[in-house]
Amino acid sequence: QVQLQESGPGLVKPSQTLSLTCAVSGGSITTNYYHWTWIRQPPGKGLEWMGAIDYSGSTYYSPSLKSRTSISRDTSKNKFTLELNSVTPEDTGVYYCARTGTEGYDYWGQGLQVTVSS
Fold first, then answer.
1. What are phi and psi of 5, to 5 degrees?
2. How far apart are CA 88 and CA 45, in angstroms?
3. What is the Cα–Cα distance from 7 to 1, expressed in whole angstroms?
4. According to the model, what pLDDT value does residue 82 have?
5. 68 by DSSP, 3-state: which?
6. Which end of the chain is more exposed for a tag (fewer CB within 10 A), N or C?
7. Distance from C-alpha of 101 to C-alpha of 31, rounded to nearest angstrom
8. Phi and psi dihedrals of 68, rounded to 5?
9. pLDDT in tens, the chain (118 residues)
């Protein structure tokens, strides 16, 4: 059973960089052909795909967030990381990491509430 666990700060000040980590257990992030994905949900809105890093280390970003987003991985620790810079209150929401397989998102973390406020 694959498990994902998000970690990071729950409160970030505007203009700072948000850094979140997703620790994966029960499966390797280098296993063909999965993508390891970051998704967020602003309050009262739907899910927003932010980006992903695949089994080979290739990265993919939402066009609307690409200029502010970086996703990386540490294969030795089996985790991947999201960095979102220059945050504003509009970046407030619940942040999820998930595994994307051939049939979509098959495993999710429990979600982490992030609030951007001074």
1. -140, 115
2. 16
3. 20
4. 98
5. helix
6. N
7. 11
8. -115, 0
9. 999 999 999 999 999 999 999 999 999 999 999 999 999 999 999 999 999 999 999 999 999 999 999 999 999 999 999 999 999 999 999 999 999 998 899 999 999 999 999 9
Beta pairing partners, 112: 95
* Residues whose CB falls within 8 Å of the CB of residue 108, separated by 6 or more in sequence, listed in order: 4, 96, 97, 98, 99
Structure tokens that stand for 97 in this block: 């990491």
Quick one: CA torsion of 39, 32, 22, 2, rounded to 10 degrees?
100
Structure tokens, 21: 């980590």
SS3 11: strand
Tokens of 65: 């967030």
